[in-house]
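Question (not urgent): is this output format expected?
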Amino acid sequence: MLVCVNKSAGAHDTIKNSRLFCWNILAAHHSALAQKFAGQDGSKGDIRFTEGSWRELVTGAPSLIEAICSFDCCVVETHDAGSHTIFVGEVVAQATNADREPLVYVRGAFAVPRIQDPRH
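Got this back:
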């Protein structure tokens, strides 16, 4: 799993020092949580984890229980990319809730993709 994290982001040094991360694919009803983690509501640090239900899988990184999928990873490579660091993680555990609609970020906003029926 590859993630690119801005060096000014609060999670950057945590991932760099701990060498682990969990990537959670959010469901459609998580837009407020996504805004909180993006800092759009002014939240920073551990206060962001007060919303939602969290658990640990293998590494100890926070995994959102209601996420569509959570990938628990150990960092195996890092690459400097200017203002960001690219962290390449080996997935050591995962959890799924496949019955949920995904939340995406497109054109500067969070949205739920519409899947069109190919028969129409």
